[in-house]
């Protein structure tokens, strides 16, 4: 191994000499480079190979390469680049190859190497590396896609990209990712070729325009054939194939193959969304929508997709049946109107698109009157109402009618009830709002947010009796052990604090007698209210009672200690009592209670007590937490020492 390392070191000598000669590095820096490289070489030649050693070596060489470039810019030296930078880059390339050979299973290593090759413009290595990577990782569809994207985007080879995707599909015949990438690739390629053809035609037109005459501006068809060496039949065949590519026929073949393998509405909708990005795919999109309608007529997402296409102006036309009665075959051009002056206006066209969209949803709801279908319809209308620049009343009325329809059908979800209530509130329709909230909480009794809105509605109108009835009904439906019901308790407490202080304490006392989900968070709030309303003495008395009343609450002790600490005449005895109770009840598993006690004595109390608290903590904590506590205490002690030294 030593001989091999020395051999490697000898190979570095010319490069290092060049670094010194042109002044990129000082002699001591060159010696350091030699030393570091030898260390790395020894590590990567060990019997037990370690990936991290290879990565550190590569990282060091990359750093050295970057440093060399910076030094050149700084001192203005440009010579010997091939003898230095190129050699370093080749060394990194060799190190990457060694690492990949030894750690073939590491996908990240392969990808990092390919990115390095791109950075160094070692493009010739990439294609070979991609093939090698896929021989090892043929089970990963994303890598087949990665290879195809590289060939298409970087190498500009659509044939190689196709081959990668087709080979990937042989390994993964039902891979959505590979079919999606193959579909996108063919459309991208078709769009690129169309652009090239347009540019070529424009160039020829310009050339013809500046020519002396049409007879001399371009070669005849016969001359063109003579130049290209193609017969009429060959040229027509070539043009036919080219036209099919330009029209996206290859993408259509991919699509037809994919739907035979994958029967999923989400997948098909993803393909449709890709096709929609290209303006030459109208026929293909129509074919895809036909298949969607025929195959997934019982899927809400299909109807939602078709409806959104109507909204975008991509009107569905059934090329097979042309059924006038179907809302999905309607078209703005088929409806007769005398409002000729409005046909070109933006508002008119938008209104027509919205109508067609809503007709699709209406047809869908007749076939699928489900919660999900109503939610998709409502979501579309909610988004539509976010922009009221055009047709504000028309959009609002549609949303109102949809809210009513979903409500009547019993298919309204919480989100849309809340939105509807908000709309009714803004309109001042309180009677309707009350009715909707009552029905909503009956249909969705587990929705805390709906109960909260309903409770706030009645309390905001000072209807305490009805509000209390709603609160009690909510508790019965939600359950007293449901922690999500806590906001309702807080609403009632806030209301009474504003309107009737005498009932606040009764509410708190009722709350702390509930299940832990409610009582535990209310106990600290009760203390805080007592201090502000009745004073610290009343809070101490209640604390003494609550601190031993199950369920035990750590936040209760923390809150009381904080309240005692902010008193104008702080009594250390009462603060210590809080810390003592916290340590007694939670000191076996919680290191924080001991640390807070120590900090209190160190900062506000008696520092002499710290050692006793420390010993008690070590005796009481379980073994795992004892080690944690000792570490925390050591850090605290170190921090205290540093502060004392700084202030002295």
TrEMBL record:
It is found in: Nucleus, Nucleolus. Residues 213-243, 317-336 have a biased composition (Polar residues). One of its GO terms (biological process) is maturation of SSU-rRNA from tricistronic rRNA transcript (SSU-rRNA, 5.8S rRNA, LSU-rRNA). Coiled coil: none annotated. Residues 199-209 have a biased composition (Basic and acidic residues). InterPro entries: HAT, TPR-like_helical_dom_sf, Utp6, UTP6_C, UTP6_N. Residues 10-91 form the U3 small nucleolar RNA-associated protein 6 N-terminal domain. Signal peptide: none annotated. GO terms for molecular function: snoRNA binding. It holds the Pfam family UTP6_C. Residues 196-243, 316-342 are annotated as: Disordered. Its main location: nucleus. Keywords: Nucleus, Repeat, rRNA processing. GO terms for cellular component: Pwp2p-containing subcomplex of 90S preribosome; small-subunit processome. Gene3D superfamilies: Tetratricopeptide repeat domain. The keyword rRNA processing applies. Residues 357-621 form the U3 small nucleolar RNA-associated protein 6 homolog C-terminal domain. Belongs to the UTP6 family. PANTHER family: HEPATOCELLULAR CARCINOMA-ASSOCIATED ANTIGEN 66, U3 SMALL NUCLEOLAR RNA-ASSOCIATED PROTEIN 6 HOMOLOG. This is U3 small nucleolar RNA-associated protein 6-like protein. It comes from Zootermopsis nevadensis.
């Amino acid at each position: 191994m030593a001989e091999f390392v020395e051999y490697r070191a000898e190979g570095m000598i010319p490069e290092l000499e060049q670094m010194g000669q042109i002044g990129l590095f000082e002699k001591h820096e060159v010696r350091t480079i030699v030393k570091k490289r030898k260390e790395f070489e020894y590590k990567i030649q060990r019997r037990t190979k370690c990936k991290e050693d290879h990565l550190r070596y590569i990282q060091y060489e990359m750093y050295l390469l970057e440093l060399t470039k910076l030094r050149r810019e700084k001192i203005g030296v440009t010579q010997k680049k091939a003898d230095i930078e190129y050699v370093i880059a080749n060394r990194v390339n060799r190190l990457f190859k060694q690492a990949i050979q030894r750690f073939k299973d590491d996908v990240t290593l392969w990808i990092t190497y390919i990115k390095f090759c791109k950075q160094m413009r070692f493009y010739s290595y990439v294609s070979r590396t991609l093939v090698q990577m896929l021989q090892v990782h043929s089970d990963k569809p994303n890598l087949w896609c990665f290879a195809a994207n590289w060939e298409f985007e970087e190498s500009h080879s659509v044939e190689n990209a196709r081959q990668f995707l087709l080979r990937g599909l042989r390994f993964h015949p039902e891979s959505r990712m590979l079919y999606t990438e193959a579909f996108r690739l063919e459309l991208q390629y078709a769009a690129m070729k169309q652009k090239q053809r347009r540019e070529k035609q424009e160039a020829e037109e310009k050339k013809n325009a500046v020519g002396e005459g049409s007879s001399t501006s371009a070669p005849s068809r016969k001359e063109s054939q003579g130049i290209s060496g193609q017969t009429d039949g060959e040229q027509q065949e070539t043009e036919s194939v080219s036209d099919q590519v330009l029209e996206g026929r290859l993408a259509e073949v991919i699509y037809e193959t994919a739907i035979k393998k994958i029967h999923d509405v989400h997948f098909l909708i993803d393909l449709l969304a890709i096709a929609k990005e290209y303006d030459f795919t109208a026929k293909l999109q129509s074919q895809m929508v036909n298949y969607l309608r025929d195959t997934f007529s019982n899927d809400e997402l299909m109807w939602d997709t078709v409806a959104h296409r109507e909204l975008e102006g991509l009107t569905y036309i059934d090329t097979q049946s042309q059924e006038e009665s179907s809302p999905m075959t309607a078209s703005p051009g088929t409806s007769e109107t005398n409002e000729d002056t409005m046909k070109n206006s933006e508002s008119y066209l938008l209104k027509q698109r919205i109508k067609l969209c809503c007709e699709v949803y209406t047809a869908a709801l007749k076939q699928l009157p489900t919660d999900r279908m109503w939610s998709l319809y409502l979501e579309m209308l909610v988004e539509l109402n976010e922009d009221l620049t055009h047709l504000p009343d028309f959009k609002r009325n549609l949303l109102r009618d949809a809210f009513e329809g979903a409500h009547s059908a019993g298919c309204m979800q919480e989100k849309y009830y809340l939105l509807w209530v908000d709309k009714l509130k803004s309109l001042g329709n309180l009677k309707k709002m009350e009715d909707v909230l009552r029905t909503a909480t009956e249909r969705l009794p587990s929705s805390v947010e709906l109960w909260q809105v309903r409770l706030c509605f009645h309390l905001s109108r000072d209807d305490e009796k009805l509000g209390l009835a709603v609160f009690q009904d909510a508790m019965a439906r939600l359950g007293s052990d449901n922690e999500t019901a806590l906001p309702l308790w807080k609403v009632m407490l806030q209301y009474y604090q504003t309107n009737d202080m005498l009932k606040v304490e009764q509410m708190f006392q009722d709350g702390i007698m509930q299940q832990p989900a409610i009582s535990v968070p209310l106990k600290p709030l009760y203390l805080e209210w007592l201090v502000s309303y009745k004073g610290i003495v009343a809070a101490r008395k209640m604390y003494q009672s609550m601190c031993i009343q199950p369920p035990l609450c750590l936040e209760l002790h923390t809150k009381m200690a904080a309240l005692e600490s902010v008193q104008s005449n702080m009594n250390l005895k009462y603060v210590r009592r809080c810390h003592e109770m916290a340590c007694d009840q939670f000191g076996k598993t919680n290191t924080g209670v001991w640390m807070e006690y120590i900090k209190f004595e160190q900062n506000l109390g008696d520092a002499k007590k710290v050692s006793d608290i420390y010993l008690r903590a070590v005796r009481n904590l379980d073994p795992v937490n004892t080690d944690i506590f000792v570490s925390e205490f050591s850090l605290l002690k170190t921090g205290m020492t540093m502060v004392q030294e700084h202030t002295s």
